[in-house]
Design goal:
alpha/beta; six-stranded parallel beta sheet
């Protein structure tokens, strides 16, 4: 039986990301339960975790609610968790719109609870190392961020009106990175090929979002959902007046040249999901800020909103700074 110091977590959602969250929580010694959804019984048997049929019963049984369900459900589930006095970890994006993301954060604040957006790329070792070294390359000039992955299975991912969409779901990782690395954005321009038809996209599909930062740097963010025979890859390259930093998941040595010594480059990578959740738990225990805050989550959704407005109007969208 778990003791009083055991972290008790209730997961809402049983999709493809669920194993990463369950394994990370269990590695931290947490007691994990999951809401009964399609696939939850199989996950319960696989990981030896309890399956609970009712959302309110799940919330009552835990101290942290981990929301990994479709984006359109995040606000309602989080509000119920906060009302019951529970902290929330919420998969990206926080919500379908900036207004909903702000409402979600307000619900946390009103209840005196913590909200942690799960922007896991901030916890990948290469991206974190890039962030730590970025001042060494001088004034930022240009960032290129690209992410290519196999198109997901669930139909909702392809409905931009129902909380899905390539930019909202996949590219938000790199939109967040652009903000993390280069700061606030004042202009957003987006293109997508092929365009959505009646709010739905059909893979293979690619999108390109150009960001102008308040400091003058330009970020080029590209995302691709491709066929099942493709290999996942993400690349980040940052050019400054005094040098360049690059991380590439397809080339383990890409970042090490001139930046990381051989021993560090050869060191085994830690599990970013475990690192992320450990950071959140420690933030709850100590009261400090985590590496990613609810304000970061809102800012990323703001860029998504602007990108979709740019797609709709065919124009550059200016954001207040």
């Amino acid at each position: 039986m778990a003791d009083k110091d055991t972290v008790r977590v209730g997961i809402v959602g049983a999709g493809a990301i669920a194993p990463s969250h369950i394994e990370a929580w269990q590695a931290l010694g947490a007691e994990v339960s999951i809401l009964h959804r399609t696939g939850a019984r199989q996950l319960g048997e696989r990981y030896g975790i309890r399956v609970i049929d009712d959302l309110d019963d799940l919330i009552a049984a835990v101290g942290i609610v981990d929301i990994i369900s479709p984006t359109s459900t995040h606000l309602d589930i989080a509000r119920r968790a906060f009302a019951a006095g529970r902290h929330v970890v919420c998969e990206k994006p926080l919500a379908v719109t900036e207004a909903d993301a702000v409402a979600l954060a307000a619900a946390a604040s009103d209840a005196g609870m913590r909200l942690f957006p799960a922007h896991v790329v901030r916890y990948f070792s290469g991206y974190h190392a890039l962030k730590q070294r970025i001042e060494a390359i001088g004034t930022l000039v240009e960032l290129t961020l690209r992410r290519t992955g196999v198109a997901p299975d669930a139909a909702w991912f392809f409905s931009e009106d129902a909380g899905g969409g390539l930019i909202r779901d996949l590219m938000i990782h790199d939109l967040d990175q652009a903000l993390w690395l280069a700061g606030p954005v004042i202009e957003v321009t987006a293109t997508q090929d092929p365009p959505a038809v009646d709010g739905r996209i059909q893979p293979p599909v690619s999108a390109h979002v150009t960001l102008t930062h308040a400091n003058g740097a330009i970020s080029h963010v590209r995302g691709d959902w491709v066929g099942p025979d493709s290999t996942f890859r993400s690349v980040a390259e940052v050019i400054g007046t005094d040098g360049t930093l690059r991380v590439d998941t397809a080339d383990a040595t890409a970042f090490s040249a001139g930046e990381i010594d051989a021993a560090e480059a050869a060191a085994p990578a830690s599990d970013p999901y475990r690192e992320q959740l450990a950071d959140f738990v420690d933030a709850i225990r100590t009261g400090r800020e985590a590496r990613v805050t609810f304000a970061d989550g809102i800012a990323a959704v703001r860029l998504v909103d602007a990108a979709y407005e740019s797609l709709r109007t065919g124009r550059t969208v200016r954001l207040p700074h």
